[in-house]
Specification:
Fatty_acid_hydroxylase, transmembrane, mainly alpha, 12 helices, 0% strand, oxidoreductase activity, 264 residues, membrane, Fatty acid hydroxylase domain-containing protein
């Protein structure tokens, strides 16, 4: 697969998920928006387009290039083991998701990283558009780390493709403002991350926000003691203290937020 085909694939997954979960939100919404959904989407999709163009310029084909290099030269842990191919793909996805959990945790506990990550958390409502509301600085650091991890584990293109696709769809689902059936969420909680779990993570309360770091799998929170379940969903207020003025959460404000006054 060429870099351009990889970009087309990711864009197809992104757009398909965006439309699918938007339609579900409109059909079975969890709660009514407290601010204009149209304005929020303009901001969230605006920063998404800006980030996509910048990342395409900076990291054009980098992940696939590194993946092809380690596979061709038999580098990385997976290329030194006799595991069957399907198992290597599974290990790649699980390993990268675990390291993503660690990275997410660091974004909350390291002040420098939180400066960038709070852009994501200042969204006043949660819906599928929140899934890509990130500052370019955070994406630049995370992509750089991912390149090193792909090299270290020796991930080939299929493992990377499955991980990237799963990551996009999981993030869109867990941010969606849709009312999922209670029985489904109870089952989904055991291994994956439903909207109710991630909604707690977006709470304005710091002791609730600093939990539930999982993206694809919820098992890391369960195993490492950061899982929070028993929270009244109806009382969760989304956002970050000190950032409740909708007029100060425009695209321009989000781009300079990491360099402005620090807010915990």
């Amino acid at each position: 697969m060429s870099p351009s085909e990889f970009v087309i694939w990711r864009m197809s997954i992104f757009m398909g998920g965006l439309v699918f979960f938007l339609l579900l939100e409109l059909a079975v919404a969890y709660r009514r928006p407290s601010v204009s959904k149209t304005k929020r989407w303009f901001v969230n999709l605006g920063i998404t387009v800006f980030n996509s163009l910048a990342m395409r310029i900076i990291f054009a084909g980098a992940v696939l290039t590194v993946s092809a290099y380690v596979t061709r030269n038999h580098l990385g842990l997976l290329n030194l083991t006799p595991l069957p191919y399907w198992a290597k793909v599974v290990v790649t996805v699980v390993f990268l998701d675990l390291l993503l959990w660690v990275w997410h945790l660091l974004n909350h506990v390291v002040p420098l990283f939180w400066r960038f990550h709070r852009v994501h958390h200042t969204d006043l409502n949660m819906d599928v558009s929140s899934a890509t509301r990130f500052h370019l600085g955070e994406l630049f650091i995370s992509e750089s780390i991912k390149l090193g991890l792909v090299f270290f584990v020796g991930a080939d293109f299929l493992g990377v493709l499955v991980f990237e696709s799963s990551l996009v769809l999981a993030a869109q689902f867990q941010h969606s403002s849709l009312k999922a059936p209670a029985w489904f969420e109870r089952i989904w909680w055991w291994l994956f991350v439903p909207p109710s779990m991630h909604r707690i993570h977006h709470s304005v309360k710091i002791n609730e926000r600093n939990t539930n770091y999982g993206t694809i799998l919820s098992v890391w929170d369960r195993l490492l003691g950061t899982l929070l379940h028993d929270v009244n969903q109806e009382r969760i207020k989304i956002g970050v203290g000190g950032h409740f003025d909708e007029k100060k959460l425009g695209l321009g404000h989000l781009l300079v937020m990491p360099f402005a006054h620090y807010v915990r």
